[in-house]
Write a structure and sequence with these properties.
Helices cover 76% and strands 5% of the residues. It has 243 residues and is mainly alpha-helical. Bound molecules: zinc ion (ZN).
Length: 243
């Protein structure tokens, strides 16, 4: 058991933690940099999101302020854009970038963007499977030592549950990338930022994307690790080598 924990640390946890840490550092640094830079139009995050959505023909989306930093999100169930207080009221490039990115999700929803639909469909399954995967994998690992016949199927079930969470993290990538892409174009089209100001907003959004990328990579690596522990990875590799 000790050996498993050590190799898990080295193979998965450490690179994952370093990657996620670097990404979140980048987000904080870039956000802070453009938090002190205003725009010519001088709109708040909330005003910018509202104008962007209006220009894109979305009029039934509510915009609310929520407490917390970087807690901004769009809730498709109630068609509500929730912006953190520092974004809702601020007039910085950072605030406008984040607000318009969230408006990008509302736009995806209004236009039935397929990856968003898929992501929303995965939410309930993912929350269940991410709670279950670890205990099932642990149980499988334990059983494998005493009754291998039962251990293997339980371990594989655990891997399958974990695969749902990994799929969710991967499906999140096109959704986040597309929301930022929509924001960058629509911000300029609506005259919220000028062509020379959009670069800063883009940097904030690109940094935010790195955190989703780090999460997806960590998730895939963890899944590969469990498949390796279950011996499935070796079988796949040797099958490929024989061809
Ligand atoms: Zn997003």
């Amino acid at each position: 058991m000790m050996g498993m924990n050590m190799s898990y640390m080295l193979m998965v946890m450490l690179p994952g933690m370093v990657l996620s840490g670097l990404a979140s550092m980048m987000v904080k640094r870039t956000f802070a940099k453009y938090e002190n830079v205003g725009t010519q139009r001088n709109m708040t995050g909330a005003e910018a999101a509202k104008l962007m959505l209006e220009r894109q023909g979305v009029t039934d989306c509510k915009i609310e302020a929520v407490s917390g930093r970087l807690s901004d999100h769009y809730d498709p169930r109630v068609k509500t854009l929730r912006l953190s207080e520092p974004v809702y009221n601020a007039r910085s490039i950072s605030a406008i970038g984040v607000a318009c990115h969230e408006a990008g999700h509302a736009l995806q929803h209004a236009q039935s963007y397929p990856w968003l639909k898929m992501r929303s469909a995965l939410v309930p399954v993912t929350s269940l499977s991410s709670k279950m995967s670890m205990p099932v994998i642990m149980l499988g690992g334990l059983l494998l030592q005493f009754v291998p016949v039962f251990g293997m199927p339980v371990l594989l079930l655990g891997c399958a549950l974990f695969a749902v969470a990994a799929t969710f993290a991967v499906v999140t990538l096109p959704v986040e990338w597309d929301a930022s892409k929509r924001a960058k174009t629509a911000m300029v089209d609506a005259g919220i930022v000028s062509q020379s100001e959009v670069g800063g907003a883009g940097s904030v959004l690109n940094a935010a994307f790195l955190t989703y990328l780090a999460a997806a990579i960590t998730s895939i690596m963890t899944m590969l690790y469990y498949l390796h522990r279950a011996g499935v990875l070796q079988r796949i590799l040797s099958a490929l080598a024989r061809r």
